[in-house]
Amino acid sequence: MDVKTDIKSLSLEELRAEIEKIGEKPFRAKQLYEWFHVRLARSCDEMTNIPKSLKEKLADGYTYTALTIAQVQTSKLDGTKKYLFELADGSLVESVWMKYRHGNSVCISSQVGCRMGCRFCASTLDGLERGLTPSEMLDQIYAIARDTGERVSNVVGMGTGEPLDNYDNLLKFIRLLTDENGLNISQRNITVSTCGLVENMLRLADEHLQITLALSLHGSTQEKRRALMPIANKYDINDVVAACKYYFEKTGRRITFEYSLIGGVNDTDEDARNLCSLVKGLNCHVNLIPVNPIKERDYTESEKEAVMRFKSRLENRHVNVTVRRELGRDIDGACGQLRRRYAQQH
Ligand code: SAH
């Protein structure tokens, strides 16, 4: 089978080579790239300065990714929007748009489903279908920018999927997103969250990027973490933290630890103490997330008091800590609430 090239996943340089291959003038590459990544064209029809003959060649030889918005839900609590997108193969993914004082943030999905199996997360319930292509990750942002008419300044890879389980496509996506000839989002405004795939964390550290790495910790000992996250059977907690340390040493970027507080499971004083010892000496920031309920599991969030107590335990030991303000809970748009089997949910 002749697989068509996904033209919106190509770097400008790769696009130049393609354009030359099909006998077009080199300057066309830059024009096209601008339509794809700056003007955010939904289809070739919009590209007014591109001759018909070239559009026909593109239509014949390439695929052009433009996600369809299947549904938008807006939170009555905070204005957060959750987008349901349909991909060309009929798969569905969700993304979340959040408005903050410092700018607009988009949380993207990196895979259709997820195979990491974290016990408290809805995105993994039906397993992994496939990884998203770079253009499918990009177009979540582009479609939202078009729909809202507002500039996106921050991007977080915290939607459905494990970004580092789709490593090559993720890297390409980041390079396109931060390209000065494209949307030109600053690397410093991008966060990638991982459940802790050690080899790929080390690889990422060596890429010379300035993105923030967030590590989903959720347990402060190997045993506790293993009870919540199957991936901990593969990677020991100390190796994961060592990989964070390496990331900081290589990039100078402060690590974010995400810690979902689950009532009676990981929110005791002992948990707080162990967490402090674990991250001691590491330039980091701990983000506490009262766990968001999902109907298939009976985990409940920690009591407000327990959250505050946990937080002050960390502060007393000089660990930077904040409690995440969860947005979009009423539309199932908060952490761990995005899912693949959208249709069955309602
Ligand atoms: N696979 C990546 C990114 C997706 S999840 C990762 O594991 O980091 C984004 C964050 O939400 C992770 O820290 C994840 O552990 C957390 N999360 C998942 N389910 C949650 C829930 N029900 N409540 C609160 N946070 C949750």
Helices and strands, with pairings:
Layout: E1 5-6, H1 12-21, H2 27-37, H3 52-61, E2 62-63, E3 68-74, E4 81-86, E5 92-100, E6 103-107, E7 111-113, E8 128-131, H4 134-148, E9 154-157, H5 167-177, E10 190-194, H6 198-205, E11 212-216, H7 222-228, H8 237-251, E12 255-261, H9 269-279, E13 284-290, H10 304-316, E14 321-323, H11 342-345
Parallel strand pairs: 1-2, 6-9, 9-10, 10-11, 11-12, 12-13, 13-14
Antiparallel strand pairs: 3-4, 4-5, 5-6, 7-8
Bound molecules: S-adenosyl-L-homocysteine.
In short:
Helices cover 33% and strands 20% of the residues.
Overall number of strands: 14
How much helix is in the residues? Answer: 25-40%
Structural Rg: 21 Å
The helix-and-strand class reads: alpha/beta
> From N to C, what is the helix and strand string?
EHHHEEEEEEEHEHEHEHHEHEHEH
- Principal-axes geometry comes out as elongated
Span of the ends, CA to CA = 38 Å
Largest sheet: 10 strands, mixed
β-strand amount: 15-25%
Strand order of the largest sheet: 3-4-5-6-9-10-11-12-13-14
Q: Average the pLDDT over all residues and give the rounded result.
A: 94
Tally of DSSP helical segments: 11
Q: Ions, cofactors, ligands: which are bound?
A: S-adenosyl-L-homocysteine
* Residue runs with pLDDT of under 50 for 5 or more positions: none
